[in-house]
Amino acid sequence: MRASVLIVAAGRGRRFGDETPKQYLPIAGVCSLRRCLETFLSVDAIAMVQPVIHADDADMFAAAIEGLDDSRILPPVLGGATRAKSVTCGLRALAANSPDCVLVHDAARPFVSQRIILDVLEELTQADAAFAALPVVDALWQTSDGAAINPVPRDGLWRAQTPQGFRFDPLLSAHLSYDGDAADDVEIARAMGIEVRIVMGASENFKITTPQDLERAEQVVANDATKEQAVIAHLPLHAGRG
């Protein structure tokens, strides 16, 4: 399949509380948007990447991709007033390139893995839609005024992540027919009757929503660097030599 990626980077991140949108905040010197792009571009099956940005963010976007010389990155398009409208703008732009499928990914999820990307793409060879998610394992409670009221069964409940993958034409049709906003593209697809499959996500594929999430992301990078240094330190002196 001719696979495309739509990176949703038009959000303002008001819950985060910083003047700079969270997708452009540095994580050990490299912003979340840049980290997403590098991972998707490392997958050979990806034919094109369509960023969707806010009208005020052109300079930040240019800085984020500086030195990232890959012809698969298409010129960014401007998003809309809601996430759903931003995705629609991106899909309209991608339509001219006639992709077979599209992966929609939040720019604020910096640690998406090649494994997840490939698993979603593999599922799309047999289904019209698939997305990464994690099963809910904690107890769930309905509350009122800060007090626990009723337990909520967690059987069959999953926490959605991105990328969310779709055959391109059905998703474009679904967006053009959908009125209003939605939590994600799975909601829009299901509203139009599209069957959606689930593939296993990863705890590392979390979304940066609060300052605490950014601290967690910094720690992930620091831990990875420590592990890499430990591996290098234990390599034999002749490693890598002919």
Q: Find the structural class using helix and strand composition.
A: alpha/beta
Report the average pLDDT across residues.
93
Q: What integer value in Å does the Rg equal?
A: 19 Å
Helix content: 25-40%
Q: How many H/I helical runs?
A: 7
Tell the overall outline: globular
Q: Estimate nothing, just give the exact number of structural domains.
A: 1
Helices and strands, in order, run as EEEHEHEHEHEEEEHHEH
- End-to-end gap: 39 Å
Major β-sheet profile: 7 strands, mixed
CATH-level-4 superfamily name: Spore Coat Polysaccharide Biosynthesis Protein SpsA, Chain A
The CATH class, by name, is Alpha Beta
| CATH architecture title | Alpha-Beta Complex
Hey, roughly how much beta strand do the residues contain? 15-25%
Q: Topology, pairings included?
A:
Elements: E1 3-9, E2 26-27, E3 30-31, H1 32-41, E4 46-53, H2 58-64, E5 77-78, H3 83-95, E6 101-106, H4 114-123, E7 129-135, E8 140-144, E9 147-152, E10 158-167, H5 168-177, H6 185-191, E11 197-200, H7 211-233
Parallel strand pairs: 1-4, 1-6, 4-5, 7-11
Antiparallel strand pairs: 2-3, 6-10, 7-10, 8-9
Helix pairs in contact: 3-5, 5-6
What report would you give on this structure?
This protein is α/β, with parallel strands linked by helices and 242 residues long. The chain has a single domain (3-138, 156-233), classed as Spore Coat Polysaccharide Biosynthesis Protein SpsA, Chain A (Alpha-Beta Complex), CATH 3.90.550. It has helices spanning 32-41, 58-64, 83-95, 114-123, 168-177, 185-191, 211-233; strands at residues 3-9, 26-27, 30-31, 46-53, 77-78, 101-106, 129-135, 140-144, 147-152, 158-167, 197-200. The strands form three sheets. Strands 5-4-1-6-10-7-11 form a seven-stranded mixed sheet, with helices on both faces. The longest helix has 23 residues, at 211-233. It is globular and about 55 Å long. The protein starts with a strand and ends in a 9-residue tail after the last helix.
